[in-house]
Amino acid sequence: MFCFQCQETAGCKGCTQVGVCGKKPEVAAMQDLLIYVTKGLSAVTTRLRAEGKKVSAQVNHLVTLNLFVTITNANFDREAIVARIRETLSVKQELLSRLDSKEGLPEAAGWNGDPSDFDAKAKGVGVLATENEDVRSLRELITYGLKGLAAYEKHANVLGGEDESIDAFVQSALSRLLDDSLTAEDLTALTLETGKYGVAGMALLGKANTGRYGNPELTKVSLGVCKNPAILISGHDLKDLEMLLEQTQGTGVDVYTHGEMLPAHYYPKFKKYANFVGNYGNAWWKQKEEFEQFNGPVLLTTNCLVPPKDSYKSRVFTTGAVGFPGCPHIDAAADGTKDFTPLIEMAKKCPAPTELEQGQIVGGFAHEQVFALADKVVEAVKSGAIRKFVVMAGCDGRMKSREYYTEFAKALPKDTVILTAGCAKYKYIKLQEELGDIGGIPRVLDAGQCNDSYSLALIALKLKEVFGLADVNELPIVYNIAWYEQKAVIVLLALLHLGVKNIHLGPTLPAFLSPNVAKVLVENFGIGGITNVEDDIRTMIG
Ligand code: FS2
Ligand code: SF4
After folding, report:
1. CATH code at 66?
2. How is 322-353 classified by DSSP, letter by letter?
3. Which positions in this protein are listed as binding [4Fe-4S] cluster (predicted)?
């Protein structure tokens, strides 16, 4: 196997024996093949569009789900991935028959192997199949951006949000990744175009979320526990949460959020559920201890899943793109509904969660809430009470080096405000009391999930307008972003598309950036890494 798509890749080079995430070589092989056949399908759909023929939403959704399934910590179930490869091949065969011309299609478009061929084929279609280091780097940078974009699209799709132009781009980009005639310059342009569609994808999801659940608002989320048995829900899928809350009404079962589901509490629509009682625990990587102590069933709606311990494995349920052998998977019915009865019945027989902590988190500072406070914010900037905003969005992870972010937050001067989104927040969100506020504005403003980084970009654009600036980089905003998996890649490409420069990325730069590609990013966008808290505060804050 060879995989270097996430920040924790072995030795900062690549996982070759087994994934640091727990992905086994036989799963990695099927993920490589799933990406390959998805590219093949995309070459066919792109040709169909060129011939003026329609591609169904069903096919678009198949492509996005395939990409999502291969994101870090989403799916460890080889059989589930094999089933997706088979379905993709069968859909592709049907679509091939609708083409007027198959001339010039890439090999992947025609490949239609039997499951007994899958392992042999997978060996030749992974990351290392591209020999040129820079072309490989750009191809993977684009692929990972597309995976992140697909995840956000999938969440929008289940809420009825559709944008065919994004699907057409994703599929055309995937098919272009098969084209050996593309130069490094072509691929660099495609990378930037991916960022453009990343903005569109996050806007689509933002609209779908707020259209159904309202605009996030200032909210206090409890961190303690109640006496009832309960279900813990993790991941990013708000529709799954809505269905779970509906189905638990009147059952005596409470619902808590974990990890990236925390920001669901900020949406007005979810506040009407009396059994939606709080957030339990921290970011994804602490789940082994926290799921154990939760005592009840856990629903993983998206990554990040850590291979579960036997002691609580029978309580872990997966749905959507997530899968793990031996964990029950809740499938959607044809109309998209899901039946969570097995979790509810299990919860009734489980003890209530063990308390981990008490207290609260204050969040809900997505763009509309910040715009509502705009006068106060602008005044604080004008008076000098706020010297700088520090965007610390992104992902959390288990590496010790990430303690840097806690120390960085603590060491920031008192006239700075942290803007955060994503699970990166868990490194400092519980220090809110210690970090204090500036004239009533908390020094840590949480916009929401990682996709709500888009909301932070909207806040920056609004400030640019209010202050009458020509360039978003003239604002008193610095970016110190923590990354882990591929959704952070699309967030980064989206920020580059919006013209944001001088982003610091850590705790390490992606292993998939070749020295030449990294050089292009440094020279054109001022992308840099991190060093140590003291020096970085000096460089970023002055
Ligand atoms: Fe955190 Fe994991 Fe949000 Fe990532 S829970 S690293 O999926 O997308 O962020
Ligand atoms: Fe390694 Fe990350 Fe790939 Fe897992 S997702 S195999 S940890 S690079």
Report:
1. 1.20.1270.20
2. -B-TTS-EEPBPTTS-B--HHHHHHHHTSPPP
3. 3, 6, 15, 21
* Alpha carbon distance 248, 246 (integer Å): 6
Indicate if 123 and 238 belong to the same structural domain.
no
CA separation for the pair 16, 32 (Å, rounded):
13
- Out of 170, 195, 212, pick the residue that ends a domain: 212
Tens digit of each residue's pLDDT (9 = 90 or more) over 265-307: 999 999 999 999 999 999 999 999 999 999 999 999 999 999 9
Kindly state whether residues 189 and 43 are assigned to the same domain.
yes
Within a domain: 356? no
Does the global pTM surpass 0.80?
Answer: yes
CA of 260 to the centre of ligand 1 (A): 7
Residues 385 and 496 reside in one and the same domain: yes
* 203: nearest Cα among 461, 380, 538: 461
Could you tell me the two tokens for 308?
A: 């579960």
Number of domains making up the chain: 3
Same domain, 226 and 300: yes
The per-residue pLDDT for range 57-89, each reduced to its tens digit, is 999 999 999 999 999 999 999 999 999 999 999
My answer on whether 205 and 226 are in the same domain is: no
User: Does 20 sit in the ligand 2 pocket, CB within 6 Å?
Assistant: yes
Q: What angle do helix axes 453-466 and 486-497 make, rounded to 10 degrees?
A: 20
For residue 48, what pLDDT is reported? 98
- The residue to mutate among 232, 260, 300, 420, having the most atoms of ligand 1 within 8 angstroms of its beta carbon, is 260
Beta strands 388-391 and 416-420: pairing type?
Answer: parallel
Q: Annotation-wise, does 6 bind a ligand?
A: yes
Which atom in ligand 2 lies closest to the alpha carbon of residue 19?
6
Mean pLDDT for 308-335 is 98
Distance CA 270, CA 81 (A): 33
328: CATH: 3.40.50.2030
Q: Which residue segment(s) compose the domain that 289 sits in? A: 219-348
The verdict on 149 and 201 lying in the same domain is yes
Residues 45 and 111 in one domain: yes
CA 48 to chain centre: 30
- Extract the runs of DSSP E, i.e. beta strands, from 324-400: 329-330, 360-363, 388-391
Whether 209 is in the pocket of ligand 2, judged by its Cβ within 6 Å, is no
Q: Is 485 close to ligand 1, i.e. is its CB under 6 Å away?
A: yes
Residues 337 and 403 in one domain: no
CB of 240 shorter than 6 A to ligand 2: no
Kindly compute the dihedral angle of the four CA atoms of residues 403, 409, 411, 417, in this order, to the nearest 10 degrees. 170
Q: Nearest residue CA, atom 5 of ligand 2?
A: 72
Task: Indicate which ligand has the atom closest to the C-alpha of 484.
Answer: 1
In a domain, 533, yes or no: yes
Q: What's the CA-to-centroid distance between 26 and ligand 2, angstroms? A: 13
pLDDT category of residue 242 using cuts at 50, 70 and 90: very high
